[in-house]
Each structure stands twice: as structure tokens, then as C-alpha cells.
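Entry 12.
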Amino acid sequence: MTLDWPGQRPTMLRTFTVLLFCIRLSLGMTSIVMQSQPELWIETNYPQAPWENITLWCKSPSRISSKFLLLKDKTQMTWIRPSSKTFQVSFPLGALTKYNAGLYRCCYWKETGWSEPSKVLELEAPGQLPKPIFWIQAETSPLPGCNVNILCHGWLQDLVFMLFKEGYAEPVDYQIPTGTVAIFSIANMTPESEGVYICRTHIQMLPTLWSEPSNPLKLIVAGLYPKPTLTAYPGPIMAPGESLSLRCQGPIYGMTFALIRLEDLDKSFYRKRPIKNEAYFFFRALKIHDAGHYLCFYYDGSYRGSLLSDILKIWVTDTFPKTWLLAQPSPVVQMGQNVSLWCQGPVDGVGLALYKKGEDKPLQLLDTASTDDDESFFLNNVTYSDAGIYSCLYLLSWKTSIRMTSHNTMELVVVDKPPKPSLSAWPSTVFKLGKAITLQCRVPHPVLEFSLEWEERATFQKFSVDGDFIISNAEGKGTGTYSCSYRIEAHPNIWSYRSEPLRLMGPAGFLTWNYVLNEAIRLSLFMQLVALLLVVLWIRWKCRRLRIREAWLLGTAQGVTMLFIVTVLFCCAISFAGLCNGVLTEETEIIMPTPKPELWAETNFPLAPWKNLTLWCRSPSGSTKEFVLLKDGTGWIATRPASEQVRAAFPLGALTQSHTGSYHCHSWEEMAVSEPSEALELVGTDMLPKPVISASPPIRGQKLQIRCKGWLAGMEFVLYKEGVQEPVQQLGAVGREAFFTIQRMEAKDQGNYSCRTHTEKRPFKWSEPSEPLELVIKEMYPKPFFKTWASPVVTPGARVTFNCSTPHQHMSFILYKDGSEIASSDSSWASPGASAAHFLIISVGAGDGGNYSCRYYDFAIWSEPSDPVELVVTEYYPQPTLLAQPGPVVLPGKNVTLRCQGAFPGMRFALLQEGNQVPLQFQSTSGNSADFLLHTVGAEDSGNYSCVYYETTMSNRGSHLSKPIMIWVTDTFPKPWLFAEPSSVVPVGKNVTLWCQGPVRGVGYILHKEREATSVQLWGSTSNDGAFPITNISGASIGRYSCCYHPDWTSPIKIQPSNTLELIVTGLLPKPSLLAQPGPIVAPGENMTFQCQGELPDSTFVLLKEGTQEPLEQQKPSGYRADFWMPAVRGEDSGIYSCVYYLDSAPFAASNHSDFLEIWVTDKPPKPSLSAWPSTMFKLGKDITLQCRGPLPGVEFVLEHDGEEAPQQFSEDGDFVINNVEGKGIGNYSCSYRLQAYPDIWSEPSDALELVGAAGPAAQECTVGNIVRSSLIVVVVVALGVVLAIEWKKWPRLRTRDSETDGRDQTIALEECNQEGEPGTNTSSPSSVSQETSVELPVPI
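Predicted 3D structure (C-alpha cells):
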């Protein structure tokens, strides 16, 4: 770095290099060598005569590249495109001659273009070594006394490097490095270390062959004088084009002052040597790139410098950045408490003003000194009058043309208790069989704790940090009324008001008419069966006692039996028909187990972890309350801490023999315990825990990853194969797990594998080997087709269906989540054809995200795993932002980069396009943002894009979707639209906002006024709408306006202007009169004329309609009146009209509005609406109010009751009170109205409204199915009653016959009954004659 002005040629003597490097280190800046700069060096196979055969090598610093370029004397010499991307390439030159001597540099290709060139290599004539280059690198940051590294690059390897200092004959240091660069260290720079240094090289075998000396480097010491002060006049925040003066003042006269901008130390170095002890640095017309951080210092003639001044930040902008306001401890404050309002923004060194909505003057002011000390606005002993909406603005003490933008506001709520929260139930307030309900208590500000109360049980109370409460309905004990409250951290002893009560209902407390009727039908069927059995038993009993000569009794029994069978079959048919209303599809509901937690160990002794060990258990579920750690049957319980991460710690301390064993943990939720985590085995006090090895089934010819899961971070991993002594693969420290890759699985790769871990540094401490993993290649079916029916990025509560299909027949399917089986579907019984299975998640929860896949199988052969589907459950993390670079409007064939900025590092990002179910791109990054490149875009790439980020270790819990951004692929910006709000016709002194709207987001707008060379205002690109407010409008504001897009990036895309807007200011001339012909009420289809009468000639008349932003019509008549003709008017022409006029000599300076004229376009006014309050059903002693409402004002209502010829009541407000004395209030009602100005025109009657009561019909909830079932019950009961009545009537006669029958007849009757089932049996009884004449009708019962 020289002391010359920027842009002048640098001298060979590089003074102040150490000073500038210490400046970089004191500010936390990197070294002068850019990371993107490649390295250039020489290799040769003639060590003693390297010029005989020279090869130049170029190496990129951190990335592989597809092209490399070699430059000689600033002209292109050659470029190389290797066959595959690589880090370095060679450029053979051969023997050095005068033709290939010169200055060489190299570059490599990046995604955005060619990189920075390398350092310059100077090849001179043959017989000489290349001239080394010399620069410095600071190590630490104290001023004075920097530790300095001086680097010397010799271009060749195995050289001897010598460091010389001016005034010394012998070298002060020498080195023989293994590479091409030597590093000479000077510790704690002092004045004795000052001087001019050079570097030379020579070949080890030929100490007489020296290189040319490097360029000299002069080192000086800074910080010997007191630091100066740096101030800006008129202020540190200025607009582009304004002038600025920076003043650097020190305590010593006759010094040279220097000014530096830290963003560009090498180029922005300014110096002045005034007579006094201060210097002024002027910027006559500021530019955007002049913004930055400035500091100054001064030095004497020997280049001994002062300490650096404090950093001064200069802003060059046309719009102030936004401020935001925070309330501490909370925006909800209890009366009498104190609250601090912190105003924060990116601009430093300016004052701040606090405003309250509704007040013009600021409430409090903070000067620059107060803002630098991080002071805040303070409200003491707040009352209800302090509640309101607050904002803060920058307070400048100098004049500038910078425009204030909109600012964020903060609402302060003052209560005696915090306001009540909201309580909702998910998925509904009605319990379903086996399902729980989650009650969600929510407030819009941070909360310390939530509480849930159950009104039916006074002792019931639950607490939650996130506001979610899971309620089950075991044994019907979950139904009832719930409410919630909360407390904040500022006032932990004060609970808020309770929320509105919420009632949960279910089968134990939710009875409807259908439910009661269905239960009655089930009971009646059971009673019919019992009654039938009783009738059969009664008949058998009668048969044993009586002599039966007729078959009517058995026939009756048969009829009753058949009637019962038909009833049952008919009811079953009705039920089956109800089932057949849907489509019979094979869907398997996924019953998600409680997510498996993750177990790992942490230590603060990396080389000896057993000295202090802590086990951590983390759950992917946000509703986890407790964790359980089990070791060989012994358990510890830990409560979840109140933090964002759901995890708990189990400190073990120093590991002893009593700690050895197998550990796993569970997460404990409201009603369930999770599956155990993977087991962690502690095997000894000097051995690391045994790792776990796993892999997916190997497939011949495909890549296979073997996962080795350790338990400590920072360990290295080694993979072994049985029968091979040396390790198969080794991987460095990559977290707690490693993935070993077999690129192409073949038969030779089969066998038993195991893995071990060891510490990163020697001496290594090893773990026990893992359990062996056998890899065997089996014949497999091809992988199935696996997808979701909708997008895999879903919100909580959504329904997700996975479809797994294959062309093979009669297959069974297995669904996996993160490698574990969670569901299966057996389709082997299905009809011939392709096999498929649908796995259904009815309501997705936060723990249901993850990587899903499926496989199918038959008896012994499995398929390959399907391609995974990443299911992302959103709305867990904050919303990201999506930006388009260079902008959202792109020329066809160009590239555009979409940057998704998240809130947390180490996430995975997904890019989505509207209309595509599957995300377009995925990207995992270590930072908190991801760049998605859309390459060579076309018209099909136009559309709305959004992005989401999610964590891959915890069930793919994702963020809210970003706001969509519209990408336009076109060569012309779409035309925007300019309009005025509330209207383009504005009274003088009022405010109006001109809005420039367009479909392109993220682009600024610029407003133009006709006959003005410069644009009126420039509005920033922070939303889709451009607002240009004009306050206190006057005659200077009138005119014609237009707007267009104003992109903040360089773009060749054409820009179109918007429509032209004429801004008319009223109130400057006497008002006109407005009449309508033939009148204010016109039938549709007729013509109407508005007559606007002014008081001045040569005027232009304007017709206006209320609610319309633009004038309807303008006329320039020859006289004092304009006639606006409206042919064939329609209903939408109804409204309130007015007119204004302005002189042709003073356009747009208009008169006052005429009196408003209301127009109705109708042949009959529209019908009103009629409603009843509180309901349409009369209650004992209560009246009903009928409310008739119409669309027009100034009307009279009339109520009509069916059955009465004359109208019942009249009313101006439309309310009619109806009573039900003697049942005369029930019936159908309707109402109508008429205009008071036109009493002969009545509206259409309203729709009829029926009032019911004791004498009217009662609404019942009854379906057709229930009517059919009820009819069947009545038929069966009537039939049974008839049978019993007949039998009861016959009973006296049968009893008389019984008394006349002797014992012999009883015996015969008994035999007949006993022989009922044997009709061919003969008998010698005397009654056989009578049996022969009788008719036997065997009836099976």
C-alpha cells in the first residue's frame, strides 16, 4: 500500500504495509490474500538448471473447476479444459527462451465467471532464477506491537530463502521450506524492527546461483502518538449527490493526516498535510459506493504514526432504513409497572424520537450520546392512558433530502391482568373412538407458562410451556368444559384472564336424536329375538298338554319366525347399502408410534472422554414432557427443560466400573411412551462406547452406504471386513456418525463388516468393535414406484396418502420411515393385475415427517427399496425469505438464482413452484441460506416460487413456507397501473396517495409528473405496492402523473410506463348544481341525463360517482352547462353522483363539489331480508322480534301475515314485535318497503319466514333410514300383539276341553307330540282312526 492518492501508480517502496495489516486484524478482517486467488508455481526435472525444462502449475484454493487460464503480459496465452473437474492443471513451457520470458498469471473458472488472477510470476532470461515476491501477513491485533509474518514466494521448490535488512551485510534470517513459500516471523514490532527488507533465493546445490532481489518492503511502527477524532459535517447520513466533509483532528501540529475506508483498504487511502492540527476530506457529490466505515490517523516525516481514530460509519442512501420497537419486559404491562421501549435500527450515531398514534408531537427524544450508550425510552408507572400504538423515527440535527420510510409499530397493552388467550381444539371438539384431542392455548406474545382448567373438576390443572394440552376420553372422562390462562415472565405471580370456555363432547356426553334412535333399533332387535324364543317355548309347552288337531298354531309360529328373519335381512341390507355408498379401496391407516428418541454422549475431555461423561436424550416430538434413561433395568427420570430443543441431560461424571452396561432412553408423552432409542454400551473406563453398524440391503451393481453410528462427537471412524487385516476405509471426524461407501456392490464385496471409533489425536483411544454386519447380495425384484398423492410438503393436520405400486401381481407391501418398518399391507388376495397399496396418515403431526420408502415381496423374494420421499411437516420454524438475484424479471435464456434465507444453520432447504407437487430442488448447507440456480430459463419457468427449510435429524420438522415470489421470464416488464386513493379528485388541503401497482414483486417504482424533468419520488422495493403520499394538497400538486418500474439492478429488460392519471384539486371555484332527468329513480334499460350547471364559461366539467376512484366522464361545452348522457342504465349505475368544473386556462384547479345526488336504477326496489330474533320458535311467555332490512335508506317497512288481508304493522326501523297469545302468532310472515319520497312504489316482498310454537310443527332430526326402521319395529310389535291376543282368546275353550279329556287322551296327545318328527311310525292306539282322518302339517321351527 502506498501513500499516494487512489488511482495513482504505486511505488516500489511499500510503506505502511504493517500499519494497514494491523488495521485489518484489529477490525477482525482477513489477510490481503484473497481466498479466491489461485496459486501459481514452477516445477522442473532439472534441479540445477531449472530453465532447461519448465512446467507452470495453477491450483484453485478451495473448489474444483472445469477451466483454467494462463495469461502472459496481460494477454491470453492458453487455456485448458480438463476431462473432469479438478483442483490444479499444468502448463508445459519447455526450455526458457527470450520468447517465453515475461510476466505470468493464471485464473480458474467459477460459477460467476473467472476468478481473481494469481500473483505475478516474472520469468527473465535463461540462467537466472525467478524474482521472488515479498509481502506481509499480520498474526495478532495489538497496536502498537503487532506480530508480523513476512512471506517470500520463490516459485520453485527446495530453494534457500534469505532475508536481508538495509544496513546489514549478513542476512538476518534464512529458511529452507519444503514448498515454494518461506515465512519469516518478527514478533512484537518495536522501533528497532523498522527498516527496509528484501528477500532472495538460491539453489541448495548451487549457492552461487542467486535470484534477483525482491521488491523492498519498509516496515514502520504505528501507534506512537495519541489517536485523533473523526467527525462528519453536516452528518453521517446523507443522500446521493449531497456534499460531505470529514474532519480528522489531532493534538500535534505539522503532521500528515490519512483517511481510510475499511471496505477497500488498498484503494481508498487519502492523505493531506495541513498547517494546523486538523485536516478536512471533502466529498462534493456523494455516491452509493462512498458509504462505509472510515477511520483516520496521522504520522510524522519518519512515518511514525498515531493510534487509529474511532470508526465512523457513513450512510449514503435516499431512504432511511426501517426501525423497530421492542418492549421490555413485555408489551403487555400491568397497571403501575414500568416499561422500557427499545428503538433499534441499523443506523448509528443519530438521535431517536418516540411517537404515539394519534399525537403529532414526539413523546420522548434521545440524542446521539444516549443512543450510543444503549439507552431506551422509559415509561414510568403506566396507566390506561399509556396504552396505544407506538413507533420510533430517526431524529436528525441537520438538513438532508433523505425520505423517511414506513416503520414498524408496537402495541402497548395496559391491564390489571394480562388479556385472555384463545383456546381451540384440534382436530375438532368431538371425541372419536380411540382418538385424543389437542387443546391449543395461544397468545401473540412470549409466555412463561400456560395453565388448563376443567370446570367439571375443580382440582384438575395442567401446565404447558408451548400451550398444547393432549386430552384423552378414556372411559368417557374427557368430555366437559375447558378454559386456559397464562402468565408472563415479567409478572410470574399474576395469571391472565381465562379464555372463553370450550366444550369437548363425545359419546358419553353428546346425544342426538339419530344416536338415540339407532340405540333403540338395536335394543328392539334384541327384544324381538327374546320374544320369538318365548313364543316357541310356550308352543312346545302347550303341545305337551293339549291334543292338537289343527296346524294354525304352528303356522303362526312359522310366520312370526319368517317375519323376524326378513326384518333382520332388511336391516342388514340397509346397513350394507350405507357401506357401499363409498368406493371400496384398500387403504392402510398408518398408526404412528411415538417417535424414537436419539441418545448420545458429550464430554469436555476429548482425549479421555470417560473422565466426565454426560448422556443426552432428544425427542423429535414437541409434546414430550419427561425422559427416562434405563441401564440394565435401573432408571432415571429427567423433566424436559423450558427450551426450544426437546432434550434432557443425564450427567454420569467420571466413568467407573459401576457405570458399565447398556443404556437406552424413552421419551414420555401425555398418554404414551416412545420406542427405546438405540442402545449405548459403556464397556469400560478406558474404552469408547461400542458403535452401531447398519446398511440397507445390498443390490448388485449399485452404490451401498454403510452407516456407523458412534456416541461422541469428534471421533474418527474405521471400517473392517472379516478376513482382511487392514482397515477397508477410514473417515475423519464428521460428527457422531459416518457413512462408508461401496461405489459398486459386487460378489467380492460380500462378507461380515464391523466398525470402530477412536479419538482424533494420538495416542488413540479405541472403542470396542461393533456387532458384525453381514452383507449378502440376493436376487431382488425391481424397486416399486413410490409417491404421495399430494405434495410431500404439508401443514400439520393435513391428510397424506403414500402410493406404493408395482406391475407384479399378488404382492405384499412394507412402508418404512427413516429405515424402520411402520406399516404393512397384504394385497396377495387381490384380483389379478398390478399390485398397489395406499398408506394413509389421516392427520399429520410434527413428528410424522421423515424419509419414507417402501418395498414389496412375495414368499421369499424382496424388491429393491423404492426411491425415498421426504415428507416435510411445516409451521414449526420461522418463515424464511426468498429473494431473486439479480431480480425477479429475467430475459429468456439467462440464469436466475433464488436465495432462501432461513433462521438457523445446518438445515436442508427445498424450492417449490406453484403447480408442481414435488419440490424442484433440495439443498443441504452448513449455513442458514441456500442458493437455487434456475439455468437457462424459459417461458415455462415463469410462476410463483416459495421455499422451506427443515431439520433432517428430527422428523423433518420444517418452517413456514416463505412468501411466494413471482419470476417473470420476458424481455419487457409488464405494464403497471397508477391510481389515486381515495380518489383522483381531491379537495384542497386534504391528503391523497398515488399507488403504482404491478404484478412484479421485489422491484421499486418511480413516479413521473408531466413537464417535470426529474422524477417526483422514488419508493423502495419492499412490497408489491408503491405508495407515493401527497399531504396537504395544493394547486402545485395538480397535473398528469405516470409511473414505471425502477429495478435496483442493471437489466436490459424494457420498461413500459403506466397509464396517465390526472390529479384534480377541488375547492378553488364556486360549486355547480347537478340535476337528473327524468328523475333520480329510473327503470333498467331507460336513458338518463345528468345536467351540471357552472358559473363560469370556458370550463371543463367532470362527472363523479362515490366509490369510484376515477372520474366517469369529462366534457368541454361552449356554455355554462354540460349534459352527461347515460343510455340504457343498469342496476350497477345506482349510486351517489356529483360534479365539478375547472377553467381551461387553469386546468385541474377545480370547483367545490356539487350537492350529492342519489340515483336508483330499478323498476321495483329490491326485496328486503326478514329474520327472527332470538329464534323462529316461540317460548312460553316470550315474544319474537322480526327484523326487516332493505338496501335503501329513507324507507317505510310493512309486515304481512298469511291469512290476513290487511297489512299487520308499519315501521320505519324495520323491527316488529310478535307475541303468541292464543296461538295467533304462528304462521308465515313477509315484509316489503316503500320509498318515502315515492310512496306509490313498493318493493318486492321478502322471502317467507315461518314462526312455530306449541300449535305449530316441531322440527325433528329424522332420516329416511330411521323412518323405515321405525316402521319395521311397529309392524313386528303389532304382529306379536295379534298372535298373543288370538292365543289369549282361545285359552278358555282349550281349558274346558282339557277338563273333559281323560288320561288316555292325554297319553295319546303326548305320544303324538313325541312322534312329531316321525310321520311314518305306526301305532295301535284307538285314536289312530282319528289320526288317519286328520291332516298333519309338519312345520320346522
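Annotation: The CA atoms of residues 51 and 96 lie 5 Å apart. The mean pLDDT is 77.
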